[in-house]
Amino acid sequence: MAHISNTMEVDTHYILGVYSDEDDLKHGIDHIREKGISIYEVFNPYPVHGLEKNLGYGHSWLPKAAFMFGALGTTCAITMQTGMMGGLWPMIIGGKPFISIPDFVPVSFEMTVLFSAFGMVGSFLVSQDLKPYKVPRIFDRRSTDDKHIVAIDLAKNTLSEAEIKTVLQEAGAEEVNRKDFTEEENNPSFFKYLGDLFKYGVRSTSRPK
Amino acid sequence: MAAHKDHHFDREALNEQFIFSAKAKRTIFILIGIGVLFSLIGLFFMATDSGHHEEAHAAIEMTGNELSSLENPDAVHADGEHAAEGGHHAYHWTNRVKVNLWINVIFFVGLSVIGVFWVAIQYISMAGWSAGFKRVPEAFASFLPVGLVLFLIAFGWGFHEIFHWTDASLYDKASASYDSIIAGKQPFLNIPFFIGGSIVIIGGWFLFHFFTRKNSLAEDKATDPKQIRKHYRNMVKLSAAFVVFFGVTSSVAAWWWTLSIDTHWFSTMFGWYHFASWWVAGIAAITLTVVMLREAGYLKFINENHLHDLGKFVFAFSIFWTYIWFSQFLLIYYANIPEETAYFVERLSSPIYRKYILIILLVNFIIPFFGLMTRNAKRKMTILKVICITVIIGHWFDFYQMITPGTLREHGSFGFLEIGMPFIFVGVFAYLVGMSLAKAPLVAKNHPLLEEAYNHET
Question: Which residues of A touch B330 (CB under 8 A)?
Answer without folding.
Answer: 102, 105-106
